[in-house]
Amino acid sequence: MITLNPKQEKLKQQVSSHWKFGLFLLTELPMGLVAGMRLRHIDENKCVTSVPFKWLTKNPFKSIYFAVQSMAAELSTATACLLAVQGHNPSVAFIIVDLKATFGKKATGSVYFTCEDGMKAFDAVNKTIETGEAQTATFKTIGKMKDGTVVSEFEFTWSFKKQPNELYILFAYIFVSHHR
Asked: Distance between CA atoms of 69 and 127, rounded to whole angstroms?
């Protein structure tokens, strides 16, 4: 178990608020808002997201479209990564570098994606900061309907990279602009 820093605690509280998370979706991920994605739970270890089965999320086969499932599945891993990178100086950026998915059953009801690999994000961020080297981590998330039926499984690989110190960037800008 780890102790979250103040910025991580603040983010956790913000994304746990239904209306603040909706505002985040509106400004940063509008298709998630349209699809009805929700963040159901987040802590250092686990993140649960959901997406409803409705007219806007269905495909011609009367199940949730695979791309909609992918979006909600990615959110369950990305939110853990976002929590892990908060409040570090120098900051750490992350980006998805690989995706694998399997679809076992038709998603004919709301799907809940559970990722229990949150500590991998914290470990990757810490190693990135310690070594200065980019790190990758793979996060598994499983999509189930309310009755427990597994409909899809995803593996997202995220790359974490230390960002240059803002002071360094400022000095570099000043140096370059004065030596032209």
From this structure: 31
**Do the Cβ atoms of 49 and 79 come closer than 8 Å?**
yes
Count of CB atoms situated within 10 Å of the CB of 65: 17
How much is the pTM?
0.88
Show the tokens assigned to 66: 């695979």
Q: Please, are residues 117 and 42 in contact by the beta-carbon 8 Å criterion?
A: no
Q: Residue 106 has which token pair?
A: 């038709």
- Residues facing 152 on adjacent strands: 103, 143
If you compute the radius of gyration of the chain from its CA atoms, what whole number of angstroms results? Answer: 18
Distance from C-alpha of 2 to C-alpha of 166, rounded to nearest angstrom = 27
Per residue in 161-174, pLDDT (tens digit) is 998 765 555 555 56
